[in-house]
Structures are given as C-alpha cells and as structure tokens.
C-alpha cells in the first residue's frame, strides 16, 4: 500500500504540481521564476559589459602611455561618446582648457576644479558599473523567504483539504506537501545564482573602480605638473 502511494505521488510532474497549487502559491512561483529570469539576464549582461569595459580600459591605457600628445588624444576622444578612463580624461582636459581660455591664474583653484570634474565623472562611471546589482542582492536575500511564504500557505491549504476529506494516507498528503515545497525550491533556484553572481560582479566592479581611481590620481598628478609649468612661465 505504501509503495503504491509513493508511486502515485512520484508520478506527479512539476507542471502538475504547479497547476494543482493554490492561487497565492502560483503567484509566488510565477514571481520567483520571473525574478530568476531577470537575474540571469542581468548576470549575462553584466558579465559581457564588464569584459568589454576591461578591454576598453586596456586599449585606452595603451594609447595614453604610448607617448601620444594629450591634445591629439583629447580631440580624438571628445568627438565621440566615451566612458571609463576616456571619460575621466575628457572631463579633466575639458576643465583644463576652459580654465586656461578664461585666464586661470591660481594653480590650487585649477587643480581643485580638475579633480572635482574627475570625481563627478568617476561617480557616474561607478553608478553605471554597479547599476542593477542591487536587484541581484534583493533576489538573493528575499527569494528564499518568499518561497517559504508560498510553502507555508500551500501546507496550510493542504492541511485544510486533508481535514475536509478526513483521509491521512500518503497518497492524499504527499501531493499537497510536494506542491507547497515546490515554492521553496524555486525560491532557492532563484536565490543561489543571484547571491553568487552578486558577490562576483561586485568584486569585478570594485576592481574596475580601483583602476579608474588609480588613473584619475595619476592623470591628476600629470596635470598638476603641467599647471605649475604653465602658470610659472613668464608672460
């Protein structure tokens, strides 16, 4: 008798368990599946974008340290949309040129304006790098609890049905418990990749941000020396 009940319970597919679940549990499952799909879309998109961003940084550094004139590099980059180190470079050079066109005389004030321009650009670049990572963190932390909520509702509904039918055989109990536990399983399926990806992508974004900050510091030092040379030259 027990083997027949287990066979009957085991013959129920995941699709059948979904359709047999209550309305609230179905909503929970659908929401978790949608969150999982969107999480994977973010993971794939961010992985590709970070790879392209890293290659772009490598290309810019090779051009920047190749000995090319800063003016030539600025004219090349200012004519198109740039990001990363290119955006920092263009922001600093634009402030540099504006200040000297207006007859800047204070090296301290000019240096502060250039650093401020790069800080604003750096913050914008970091926002772009870290955008949508918060969704992964939310899914990773909330999905198991949402799935558990669906499981609790499903088990309560199953117990009510069992009490109404006045039967406690395994064939009656197992399907209701299985469909309730499916919500928790989907919650874990959504949460585990999201947590792993969030930790990995956050670390990658931090490394890219450190490269941007290092370039900003180096370029600020270069401009500082040139500011001193320009402003100390006899007029």
Can you walk me through this structure?
- By secondary structure, the protein is mainly α.
- The chain has one domain.
- The chain has 8 helices and no strands.
- Helix 6 runs antiparallel to helix 8.
- It is rod-shaped.
- The N terminus is likely disordered.
- This is Tol-Pal system protein TolQ.
- The Tol-Pal system is composed of five core proteins: the inner membrane proteins TolA, TolQ and TolR, the periplasmic protein TolB and the outer membrane protein Pal. They form a network linking the inner and outer membranes and the peptidoglycan layer.
- One of its GO terms (cellular component) is plasma membrane.
- Keywords: Cell cycle, Cell division, Cell inner membrane, Cell membrane, Membrane, Transmembrane, Transmembrane helix.
- Its main location: membrane.
In short:
The protein is mainly α.
Average pLDDT: 83
What characterizes the major β-sheet? none
Number of domains: 1
**Spans where pLDDT lies below 50 across 5 or more residues:** 1-10
Question: Which structural class matches the secondary elements?
Answer: mainly alpha
Residues in helix, %: over 70%
Write down how many β-strands occur, each being a DSSP E stretch of 2 or more residues: 0
The CA-CA distance between the termini, in Å, is 104 Å
Q: Count every helix, treating DSSP H or I runs of 4 or more residues as helices.
A: 8
Q: What amount of the residues lies in strands?
A: under 5%
Instruction: Compute the CA-based radius of gyration.
Output: 29 Å
Globular, elongated, flat, extended or rod-shaped: what is the shape? rod-shaped
Run of helices and strands: HHHHHHHH
């Amino acid at each position: 008798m027990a083997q027949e009940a287990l066979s009957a319970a085991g013959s129920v597919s995941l699709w059948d368990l979904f359709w047999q679940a209550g309305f609230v549990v179905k909503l929970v499952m659908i929401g978790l599946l949608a969150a999982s799909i969107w999480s994977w879309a973010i993971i794939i998109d961010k992985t590709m974008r970070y790879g392209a961003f890293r290659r772009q940084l490598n290309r810019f550094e090779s051009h920047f340290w190749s000995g090319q004139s800063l003016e030539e590099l600025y004219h090349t980059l200012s004519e198109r949309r740039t990001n990363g180190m290119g955006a920092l470079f263009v922001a600093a050079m634009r402030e540099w040129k504006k200040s000297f066109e207006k007859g800047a005389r204070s090296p301290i004030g000019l240096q502060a304006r250039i650093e401020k321009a790069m800080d604003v650009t750096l913050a914008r670049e970091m926002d772009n790098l870290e955008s949508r990572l918060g969704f992964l963190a939310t899914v990773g932390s909330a999905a198991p609890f949402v799935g558990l909520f669906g499981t609790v509702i499903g088990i309560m509904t199953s117990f009510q049905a069992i009490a109404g039918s006045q039967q406690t055989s395994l064939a009656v109990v197992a399907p209701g418990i299985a469909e309730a536990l499916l919500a928790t399983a989907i919650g874990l399926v959504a949460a585990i990749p999201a947590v792993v990806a969030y930790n990995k992508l956050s670390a990658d974004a931090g490394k890219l941000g450190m490269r941007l900050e290092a370039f900003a510091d180096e370029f600020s030092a270069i401009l500082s020396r040139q500011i001193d040379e320009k402003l100390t030259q006899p007029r």
